[in-house]
Predict the 3D structure of the following.
Amino acid sequence: MSTATAENTEATWVKVCEKNSIAPDTGVCALVNGHQVAIFYSRQLDELFAVGNYDPLGKAYVLSRGLIGSQGERFCVASPLYKQHFDLRTGECLEEEGVSIPTYELKLEGDWISVRA
Amino acid sequence: MSKQRIIVVGNGMVGHKFIDDVVKSENADQYEVITFSEEPRLAYDRVKLSSYFSGSSVDDLMLTSEEAYQNNGVVYTLSDKVVKIDHDAQTVTTASGRVEGYDKLILATGSYPFVPPIPGKDQPHCLVYRTIEDLEAITESAKQSKTGVVVGGGLLGLEAANALQNLGLDTHVIEFAPRLMAVQLDEGGGNLLRRKIEAMGVSVHTEKNTQQIVAGDECRYRMEFADGSHLDTDMIVFSAGIRPQDEIARNNGIDIGERGGIVIDNFCRTSVEDIYAIGECALWDSKIFGLVAPGYQMAKVALSHIQGGDEQFTGADMSTKLKLLGVDVASIGDAHARTPGAQTYTYEDGVKEVYKRMIVSEDGKKLLGAVLVGEAEAYGTLQQICVNNMDLPADPEQMILPQVEGGASVGMGVDALPDTAQLCSCLDVSKGDIVEAVQGGCTDMGGIKSCTGATTGCGGCTALVKQVMDNELENLGIEVKNDICEHFAYSRVELADIIRVKKIESFDELLQSHGTGLGCEICKPTVGSILASYWNEYVLSNNLVGLQDTNDIYLGNMQKDGTYSVVPRVAGGEITPDKLIVLGEVAKEYDLYTKITGGQRIDLFGAQLHQLPEIWRKLVDAGFETGHAYGKSLRTVKSCVGNTWCRYGVQDSVGMAIALEDRYKGLRSPHKIKFAVSGCTRECAEAQSKDIGVIATENGWNLYVCGNGGMRPRHGDLFATDLDDETLVKYIDRVLMFYIRTADRLQRTSVWLENLEGGLDYLRDVVINDKLNLGQELEDEMTHNIGKYQCEWKTTIESPEKLKRFSHFINAAEPDSSLAYVAERGQKRPAREEERKNQIPAVELAQ
């Protein structure tokens, strides 16, 4: 998983929640060292993703509430506000060149999800 | 080779059309075009002249611009008139003394209004109706007048009367003949038109021969009639027909008809070589053509001849359809049944004020003409049958009989039309032209318009052109690619069929059997919506929650800052004071911005995710249910107060509204659905602007379908009349389920109906006549859906598991710290960007 972590010096791992507390194919938002982190669980891929919760285009902390799905080879969240896609692996916005959201490292210990931010 | 120089005398609609044809022709570069106009501006749309009174500006009416002419190298001179032609030298001289040589000369001088030679006609406030300047003069005069008279009850006269009425004058129409529109209508049609026009407050006086105009008693003038009567008026508009503007020909040795008009042959040539006449100034076969379509045809023929072609003008169909003072009027072919042996079918409905008459040949096989007043839907079909000399269907009377209930709709498939059938008479576009355009790649109306010009004139042919286009698309097997997204090679309708027929209950199941990839924000909510329409399971259940769109997924309407608005159901807009108090208390407690919605309920804004369950618990405890304002589903059934209180109400509209809202609440559909019920024909609930509109009558309910407000307003169509409660509900069940089955994704009922093949008649066939034998099935599906109704908020607050999702952070109790509000008009609203900067201490922004 790529890392474009916040420049925050005190980036540390924080245990946030159990995997089964995320409804299949949805997201949740976690507060990690002051950062709002959107965490998604794809049932089909059986994979977890962590990105910034802030929608830089809609200008609100809402991305965890967006729908996830594939756009060709990319796996994305669509902003719940105006539906722009953000690549969950790279943070890139598919519609607006140069716009991106941070991605965070994430690990699973047993059923517990930890995020480094 | 030097260019051929064409001079076009007159820049009206037809003159401009000729120039436009030259400019667009393949060898446009071989011609140099010069045009002269007596008027101070280039060509404008005289057909739509009356729209000047309903708000169109001169710019709206312009057919071209000086810039466009300049870009195309067309040399134009305004406010100067050609007065002399020298045939031998091939030159013209203008009033201002300018001399120009020509190779070809086109006379397109049009016509002028005929003013009967009545003593006193030349006084101030005695005007005509022809040019923009005339309209300006009428407007000016109206400001100083209370009463206005139009002399002439023909087509233009009635348009002028409409104008005067719009200008607020007490309006009269004086007609010499015994009826209105004597040229186009028979007695029955003329009488009905008169009745309708009089009902609108315009006084009609027929068989009046004006003798003189003298000073009036009560008004500025008095018109004295031959029968001894008189009428006082402040102003007079003469609209007693047109006369060809043939002065230029008359004074320069070009042949003129006995009663005026520049004589032309089939190639539009005048008696002098290299001089052509086109439009209303031209006389072909002793006839003047006072419509724009034949003028356009002449323009085409003249150009063809100049370019060595062999097109000929051989007369024109003078059928017309228009709306006069809001009344649909159409006249086709031999409207007066003058053909020997002609027989007629007449349908007259005095109550609904509709008159229709078909004139057929002696053997009853061919249509010779028709008159339609009050309702002219059949015009397109009848006109095509008449013009193309097609055989009438077996029961021709069906074509003019009303199609409300029982009667099968006798249309005429566009397949039956010959390729030569002229669909757009303004621009002379045939069925063949449309077919060719479709084959050439035009697959929508926009393409057809720019490619063929069809429908860009009066627009009357739009429906027919679209039918021909659609039909040809179908013939070619061209399916406009309607795949919902990259994951499913199916349209919404196909997906709905698959889900219904195969009883598919989850997205995964559908994706595995019919899709590819992982799904996306287009297909997931669409499938979620279809599943809800048919199976109506709890939308936040584990296998459905991931399909729900922005609003559904948290059962609230997300606002710009990520908070939600809360809208409880207030069925029919009826609410007790106690419930109102609860709403007020909740709003106050959570500091929610409060606003009344357009659907007669109350919207509470600014609720944070974690507050939604608490708020709803209070609302549910007080007896509220979710309002589904977040869903593409039934929203509200608006109502007026009805006969329980209103002095005019004839039925209990509130009771019906509540019953309907309770029945269909929670019904998820391709798009949102709005209803309204009015308690009488005053229509205070504005039901005709709703997807389903119900209006009370003395005998029951009238049902309107597929109306819309919003972006593209559409009046609902009257679907059925005087229904009892049971039938009303039955029809609505069927209409809605059929909509769910056959509509596209996010397609409102209005657009759905417009795209539904066969349109309203077909929908009636399916719903009322049960043509597809689907009625029971549709009702059963609705019953199933209704049976599975639940208040989603009630279910949610009862499930601790589900409530976990309703917090901003999964690992912290605190709210979203980025939210910021300012006060405005006594309530809060989200802070704007600049306000935020001043207000909030450093909030983390993602990098």
